[in-house]
Amino acid sequence: MTALSGQEQEMVALTAAFVDERVRPRVREFEAGDHYPEPLIEEMKALGVFGLLVPEEHGGSAVSTACFARVTEELARGWMSLAGAIGGHSVIAHLLRTYGTPEQQAAHLPRMADGSLRATMALTEPSGGSDLQAMRTTARLDGGTYRVTGSKTWISNAQHAGLIGLLCRTDPDADPPHRGMGVLLVEPGEGLTVGPKIDKLGYRGVEACEIVFDDMAVPASALLGGEPGRGWVQMMRGLEVGRIQVAARAVGVAQAALAAATRYAQERESFGQPIWRHQSVGNLLADMATRVQAARLLTADAAQRLDAGGRADMEAGMAKLFASETAMQVALDAMRVHGGYGYSREYDVERYFRDAPLMILGEGTNEIQRSVIAAQWIARHRV
After folding, report:
1. What is the CATH number of domain 233-380?
2. Mean pLDDT of the chain
3. Which fold has domain 120-228?
């Protein structure tokens, strides 16, 4: 695992301190009522979290993907929703710095770096789920303007985003469909309706909504990179960052659940000794700790490959798959260690158990991840 620079280590440490001193004492204040954590978001802006993947010349810090993953892990350790608040934003920052025209970079990246402009990505459609090539949202070029029609759902930060990275069909007749897709950098305005937030099991505080485009006019200059037909390739590369970020979120939730179980197993006694000394509980802790460390290393490996300039879709898929399943299992085992108290809102483990499923379902379901991993594995090991 590549070591972080001194500046990157400091960023991770500052985030950890923010989580312990500012986030953990206030989570329930926002989470129980599903309230947007505006005060914490403002502190994250000041910390520089929104500019982690923005180049320095545009006001960001341009840390490595490995550092970005560790910062994400720390945020999720405190509250997974805060890590979600920078998820799509960071994917769009990565896409802009990699594919954006100089004009697009200058228009968006400086404000994204300080958090005054928050971005999200719009991929999933109500009828399509993970089948992105079946999307129906279209953008037809009319002179110098795209006319956008369609809908997307499960869009995180939809009510607070000032920029939407919209994957849509710019050439509906293209065969195969992915050759006719583009990413439009859409700013909210006439023709765009953001629906009410979806009432979710977990991942509360940060909204997820359906958004509807009704013949919305978007300038042709908003096409990412300015070259038609490149959107699928661009977004798939962006999702490598997105899946590493989701994996890191899962590691953070799993780490928090493990820490809670570790503390409780030492404080709680039965039959005259701490419960961790009972083999059934001790074995749970051993397996939990092993899984969390393995998930962290898989995530770091995917980040390192991306930082080295290589294709990381298989590695990011592996990290996302394993880390998300780990988070779910570790959260469940933490509840087992706590016994009946794990089912009570008095303890945080019930929240970890509610938050963990999102990482299994989001950024491409784990069933999709397995298909991606299998295809890439065969491609790299052909007989």
Report:
1. 1.20.140.10
2. 96
3. Butyryl-CoA Dehydrogenase, subunit A; domain 2 (2.40.110)
Contact 47, 14 (CB under 8 A): yes
Contacts of 111 (CB under 8 A, 6+ apart): 117, 162
Q: 67: closest CA among 35, 39, 34, 90?
A: 90
Q: Give CA–CA dist 207/37, Å, rounded.
A: 11
Phi, psi at 207, each rounded to 5°: -80, 155
Q: Tens of pLDDT along 84-136?
A: 999 999 999 999 999 999 999 999 999 999 999 999 999 999 987 777 778 99
Active-site amino acid positions: 363
**What would the pLDDT profile of 242-301 be if each residue is shown by its tens digit?**
999 999 999 999 999 999 999 999 999 999 999 999 999 999 999 999 999 999 999 999
| Tens-digit pLDDT profile for residues 215-241 | 999 999 999 999 999 999 999 999 999
Architecture of the structural domain at 6-117? Orthogonal Bundle (1.10)
